[in-house]
From TrEMBL, chain A:
PANTHER family: IRON(3+)-HYDROXAMATE IMPORT ATP-BINDING PROTEIN FHUC (PTHR42771). InterPro entries: AAA+_ATPase, ABC_transporter-like_ATP-bd, ABC_transporter-like_CS, P-loop_NTPase, Siderophore_ABC-ATPase. GO terms for molecular function: ATP binding; ATP hydrolysis activity. One of its GO terms (biological process) is iron ion transport. Keywords: ATP-binding, Cell membrane, Ion transport, Iron, Iron transport, Membrane, Nucleotide-binding, Transport. The keyword Transcription regulation does not apply. This is Iron complex transport system ATP-binding protein. It comes from the Bacteria. It holds the Pfam family ABC_tran. It is a peripheral membrane protein. It is found in: Cell membrane. Residues 9-245 form the ABC transporter domain. PROSITE patterns: ABC_TRANSPORTER_1 (PS00211), ABC_TRANSPORTER_2 (PS50893).
From TrEMBL, chain B:
Keywords: Cell membrane, Membrane, Transmembrane, Transmembrane helix, Transport. One of its GO terms (biological process) is siderophore-iron import into cell. It is a multi-pass membrane protein. It comes from Agromyces ramosus. One of its GO terms (molecular function) is transmembrane transporter activity. Pfam families: FecCD. The lineage of its organism: Bacteria, Bacillati, Actinomycetota, Actinomycetes, Micrococcales. The chain crosses the membrane at residues 37-69, 89-107, 119-137, 143-164, 171-191, 203-219, 265-290, 302-323, 329-350. This is Iron complex transport system permease protein. Its main location: membrane. InterPro entries: ABC_BtuC-like (IPR037294), ABC_transptr_permease_BtuC (IPR000522). It is found in: Cell membrane. Belongs to the binding-protein-dependent transport system permease family. FecCD subfamily. GO terms for cellular component: plasma membrane.
């Protein structure tokens, strides 16, 4: 299926800093349209910061991020939110908020100044609840859900924005393996069926290699490697970026590169 | 603009999605509860206001009170009702509404139940400026109210300036505010100990808050300012559900979180200043009204309207107690709300510590 409309999200010489401390420096990146991009890297490599920069959650110290050739800072907040949805790391909902009401908040970018809702809002919310398998939870409180359910609800909220690009910061952290897979399948489905461009920061290298069309390895605030997982995920790259001795072998299920770490006691 | 992709292909025609009905139902459940709380709270406040008009040493019956209200009463009844009791009741409503709503705006946008304008020194700033203008500059009447307003704004601006660091996070704002509150209350104590005894008793109202002796002119100013602020708050309120999430979430949903929070704080400062200029810093109303309203409304709502109603009800009831519960003498209403509020504050801090959170 072809994407709904071509979008070009890219970073040019992007430098991002917290209190003057540079975390991402002079980084160039192009996000392939209509594909799934996974951003991986060791702790404190700047991968989450990079995502926040792409998501307009941080003001660049230098360089810029553009969407379709336009600096993302020149978009009005709602205008940008209709094109790019972001799921921040560990979002928090007030105690007792009902699932349907929280997901409805995802419609905010489509509402006017006084918050009037259109008749489409409830239908779209219903659709994303269905797509994320949270329809049964519609009138439950978010705070009483399990971690996996809660994460699907947040994704539903992001999907309710109906943006062509969805950015997610470690959407699978704190989930057990089966829920991680469930979530990545859900994002893949959104990508395959509707051409949604997905960019996610992931911790788990093997899942990143399996689910991503495009893999970006960030190390020390710079891009260490980027491209198809098969080309990027080599023992050399992983060794250099993560300081990890490993063997790379084809994933017996998906055929994507699979990292098998070695460790001190199993060296040949 | 591009056409957004449909997550689920929609069927032909305009048939209503069965799940959409449930979504609407869940939403209206949240709404209904808030409406009920506002309605019941208003009735309760109305009952307290009626009791306040009827009770008292003047020995007036229901008929006398009604007659006085429509301008047909005896001169004595008219004096007691129109000059004394009615302004007092209206002052309780205006101050309570403003404090309840101001507290709700602060607590929700700063995402901390301790982040109430009375704890953060905003009401203190209003009091200090009022007392200072009276004792040092010899001002009276509306000029004192204006000074109170300026004082609240100055403290809020200081807090904002000191807490700002590449954005505004709730906890830093709260800590800076608590620091400013102690400075302000220290200065206030110093001013009052310097003053003569007669003035000090007047100044006491500015320390604990009281609504005895409020006149129609001040009430007119406060009421009309409140009306304007209420309209602005209603217009602002659609942003509250997003501000209650994290800043990143609010931004990713297309809200300029910093600007929205600044707007909420300015509205809150205005509301608190209206109340303080009229009645002094009626202790703890801003702190307790919103949590009660949020607990009653539930569903994680900011409960702005309910907070306003609960605030008014608290001040009305506290004033009834202040006037009639202590035989022989009446105390300022702020003493009574202080008695309610202080244990709540202790509980809040103790609970926060037990959880190991910041409250």
């Amino acid at each position: 299926m072809t994407p709904p409309a071509p979008h070009a999200l890219r970073a040019d010489a992007l430098t991002l800093a917290y209190d003057g401390r540079r975390v991402v420096e002079g980084l160039d990146l192009e996000i392939p349209d209509g594909r799934i991009t996974a951003v991986v890297g060791p702790n404190a490599s700047g991968k989450s910061t990079l995502l926040r920069g792409l998501a307009r959650l941080m003001r660049p110290e230098a360089g810029r991020v553009t969407l379709d050739g336009r600096d993302i800072r020149s978009f009005a907040p709602k205008e940008f939110a209709r094109r790019v949805a972001v799921l921040p790391q560990q979002p928090v909902a007030p105690d007792g908020v009902l699932v349907a009401e929280l997901v409805s908040r995802g419609r905010h970018p489509h509402r006017g100044w006084f918050g009037g809702r259109s008749s489409d809002d409830d239908r779209i919310v219903a659709e994303v609840l269905e797509a994320t398998g949270t329809a049964e939870l519609a009138d439950r409180a978010v705070s009483e859900l399990s971690g996996g359910q809660r994460q699907r609800v947040w994704i539903a909220m992001a999907l309710a924005q109906r943006a062509d690009i969805v950015l997610l910061d470690e959407p699978t952290s704190f989930l057990d393996v089966s829920h991680q897979l469930e979530l990545l399948d859900l994002l893949t489905e959104s990508n395959r069926e509707h051409g949604t461009t997905v960019v996610m920061v992931l911790h788990e290298l093997n899942l990143a290699a399996r689910y991503a069309d495009h893999l970006v390895v960030v190390d020390g605030g710079r891009i260490a490697a980027a491209g198809e997982p098969a080309a990027v995920m080599t023992a050399e790259t992983v060794g250099a970026a993560f300081g990890l001795d490993c063997v790379v072998t084809p994933d017996p299920v998906a055929g994507s590169p699979m990292i098998v770490p070695i460790g001190r006691f199993h060296r040949a | 603009m591009s056409v957004a992709p449909a997550v689920v292909p929609t069927g032909p025609g305009e048939s209503v999605h069965p799940l959409a009905v449930r979504v609407a139902a869940a939403r209206s459940r949240t709404h209904r509860r808030a409406t009920t709380v506002v309605a019941v709270g208003s009735l309760f406040a109305l009952a307290a206001a009626t009791a306040s008009l009827l009770l008292g040493a003047a020995g007036l019956g229901v008929g006398d009170v009604l007659a006085a209200l429509v301008g047909q009463g005896s001169p004595k009844a008219e004096f007691v009702i129109v000059r004394l009791r009615l302004p007092r009741v209206l002052a309780a409503i205006v101050a309570g509404t403003a404090l309840g709503l101001g507290g709700a705006l602060f607590q929700t946008t700063l995402r901390n139940p301790l982040a109430s304008p009375d704890i953060l020194g905003v009401t203190g700033g209003a009091s200090l400026a009022a007392v200072g203008s009276m004792l040092l500059l010899g001002l009276e009447g509306p000029a004192v109210s204006l000074a109170a307003f300026a004082g609240a704004l100055v403290v809020a601006a200081l807090m904002w300036g000191l807490a700002w660091r590449d954005g505004l996070t709730g906890i830093r704002f709260v800590l800076v505010g608590i620091g400013l509150a102690s400075i302000v209350s220290g200065l206030l104590g110093w001013l009052i100990t310097r003053a003569e005894v007669r003035e000090a008793s007047e100044a006491l109202v500015w320390m604990v808050g009281g609504i005895a002796g409020v006149g129609w002119p001040e009430l007119g100013t406060a009421g009309s300012t409140l009306a304007v602020l209420l309209v602005l708050t209603v217009a602002f309120s659609p942003r509250m559900p997003l501000l209650a999430l994290s800043d990143d979430s609010a931004r990713s949903l297309g809200l300029d979180a910093t600007r929205a929070r600044a707007t909420a704080i300015v509205l809150g400062v205005g509301l608190v200043a209206v109340a303080t200029a009229l009645a002094g810093p009626i202790a703890f109303v801003a702190l307790v009204a919103a949590p009660i309203a949020r607990a009653l409304v539930g569903h994680g709502q900011a409960a702005l309207a309910a907070s306003a109603v609960v605030g008014a009800a608290i001040v009305l009831v506290a004033d009834l107690v202040a006037q009639h519960a202590f035989t022989g003498f009446a105390v300022p209403v702020g003493i009574v709300t202080g008695l309610i509020g202080a244990p709540y504050l202790l509980w809040l801090i103790a609970r926060g510590n037990r959880r190991g959170s910041d409250g």
